[in-house]
Amino acid sequence: MLNVRIHKQLAHYEMNIEFEMGNEILVLVGPSGSGKTTILNSVAGLVHPDSGMIVSNKRIFFDSNEKPMPARERKIGYLFQDYALFPHMTVEKNIWYGVKKTQRNESKEMIKQLLQVLGIEHLLQKYPHQISGGEKQRVGLARALAARPSVLLLDEPLSALDKETRQQCQDELLRLHNMWKIPFMIVTHDLDEAERLGDRIIYLEQGKIADETWSVNNKNKQL
Amino acid sequence: MLDMDYSPLLLSLKVAAISTFFVFLAGVFIAYLLAKRDFFGKSVLEALFLLPLVLPPTVVGFGLLILFGKKGWIGSWLVEWFDFQIVFTWIGAVIASIVVSFPLMYQSAAAAFESLDERLSNAARTMGASEWRVFWSVVFPLAWPGLLAGLVLSFARGLGEFGATLMLAGYIPGKTDTIPMAIYFAVESGQMEKATFWVVIIIVFGFSLILWVNWWSKRNIRRFTRS
Amino acid sequence: MKHFLFTALFAILSIFLVGCSESEKPEEAELLISAAASLTDALEDVNSTYEEQHEGVKLTYNFGSSGKLAANIENGAPSDVFLSASSKDMNDMEDKELILDGSRENFTSNVLVLIAHKDSDSRIDSFKDIDPADVDHFAVGEPESVPVGRYTKETLENLNLWEPLQTKLVMGSDVRQVLTYVEMGNADLGVVYSSDAFVSGDVKVLAESDPEWHAPIVYPGAVVKASKHPEAAQDFLDFLTSEKGEKALQEFGFK
């Protein structure tokens, strides 16, 4: 469960947003500058609302009356636009970056499985600049999930990929969500993609929810 | 080889190395603290940091004397409490060298941090990294080529520092005679052979340092470039 | 930062340009006097009195180190009178026949003085009393390149103090710097010309050197051969050696 209520003054408008989500895929759609990424960053703790409340499974991320929980304690998986892989580390180091020392042993099996599902086991010793865009996207996903987050945030996860790879990756995302069963919050400006991925779609305009739709069919189609 | 005293070489290396050590720590720390932060008076503060770069060395030296002289603000206090004198010691040369090379280190470090992708640090934070770990595992290695350039420039600048050093450390043969001082007094007294020897040494040193850092950073920038 | 630099540069440049454009009107007899830097204060004081008494004569000074001034004159820089702080430079000029025969004259002299900061409680009242063990830092001119340093070395060698003081000697690149070291209280003792100590309010003179300890410190003056006003130039030189001139120089610590 993730409860989000954000009030924040931005450069050109005031953001006022409130929604709640379960272990589903929520897609945020809207023109650029409508506040999608601000919502992800607020949940991740990289920026803070002026007021409001963000709660994930009873853990209070943000509450106007308290000091916000720092990003590093929130257990968030975040796949950045362009993935933000560490260029000076191998794929393996990138993926293991967020795994605590004490959890290394118990994570081994899970990560091995994750690599298998994403088909990137053979890339472990490579550096980010040596692999393709689609591979980077999968490495980014693996890295975000390796630390066992309670929420996964994805900022335009597929926009840098060509059409064919994109389709493949969409399927992968759905499959991963099915395995993980945590809230996935995806930002995109592509309506088709939103409809294909989302259990629920929120349309944003100028920092407000313009429309909200539930889709029932696509998830079933994939399963 | 000329029959002469080689102590200026060792002293210059010692002074430049110790000064560079402190300048590196301070420059990296302050530049990281101020990078990507905006506050009232930041540009004034930065201008202040860079001031020794544009001031005549004698002005810097005079300012240092006012601070660290026997009757200076800090100097009188050090003498009174620790019986410790900075003027006319090689430590004075270190301090002069720190002040004049700090701007170079600060500028290189600030530029290196400024050009880093903020999302890389944020990615590390969302994965549970403390600020300490963010710095050492992500920021520092990625900024290293720029930091190294600053380090080498500071070292070369420290090696060549003359004006402020002469005022603060004085010229005491065998104690505070760095290479630039040896050159100055050799020229003034017409010992051209001795002057030429030191000039060649310092040119070879400065030139190879800069050459090496250019070569090194080019190689490394290529390595990290994302395709 | 860039903006600031440009503004500063512009300001500096404009001051420079304005300064250059204000050229002075030539006088009837403008005497160009190339004088050793240590004479600055004394000569500027003499200036107005002399001009009042000699109508139509205007004095223009060019101060610098004796060696540099001599080189300038040799290279054709206009000059009427050369006032040197060292016999050596004047000898060179004489050898090269750049000065008028018979015009050379020592117009003043200087002595070395031992100085300390004005708040110093030192009881030394002679160069002979200097105890190397009691001194942390002793400021002198660099003996190879600075004239006052050469005289100081001679003096201290004569008194067998040069060797014992060796590790305490802080060598200034000119006499001004030696003075500054003592003025700011960084060196306990220093040796400068009496005329230098005279103009500083922050030092006190502990002792004067005995002329027997070092080569005489004399200031030779001469009329430059290429002068366009040799008579007016000789008049000025005569004034300096007259009783009046001598007195004026003594007021600034010259002997």
Give the strand tally of chain B.
0
What shape does the CA trace of chain B take? globular
Strand content of chain C: 15-25%
Structural class of chain B: mainly alpha
User: How many individual helices of chain C?
Assistant: 10
Radius of gyration of chain C: 21 Å
**Major beta sheet, strand line-up of chain C:** 2-1-3-10-4
CATH superfamily of the largest domain in chain C: Periplasmic binding protein-like II
The assigned structural class of chain C equals alpha/beta
CATH architecture term of the largest domain in chain C: 3-Layer(aba) Sandwich
Taken in chain order, the helices and strands of chain B follow as: HHHHHHHHHH
Structural domain count of chain B: 1
| Helix residue percentage of chain B | over 70%
Low-confidence stretches of chain C: 18-27
CATH architecture call of chain B: Orthogonal Bundle
Rg of chain B, nearest Å: 20 Å
Name of the CATH first level of the largest domain in chain C: Alpha Beta
- Helix content bin of chain C: 40-55%
The average pLDDT of chain B is 88
Task: Describe the overall structure.
The complex is a heterotrimer of chains A (223), B (227) and C (255). By secondary structure, chain A is an alpha/beta fold. In chain A, strand 1 and strand 2 form a beta hairpin. With 227 residues, chain B is mostly helical. Helix content of chain B is 78%, strand content 0%. Chain B contains ten helices and no strands. The mean pLDDT of chain B is 88. Chain C is of the alpha/beta class. Chain C folds into two domains: 118 residues, 3-Layer(aba) Sandwich (D-Maltodextrin-Binding Protein, domain 2); 102 residues, Periplasmic binding protein-like II (D-Maltodextrin-Binding Protein, domain 2). In chain C, the strands form two sheets. Chain C has a five-stranded mixed β-sheet with strand order 2-1-3-10-4. A five-stranded mixed β-sheet of chain C has the order 7-6-8-5-9, with helices on both faces. The N and C termini of chain C lie far apart (53 Å). Chains A and B meet through strand 6 of A and helix 6 and helix 7 of B.
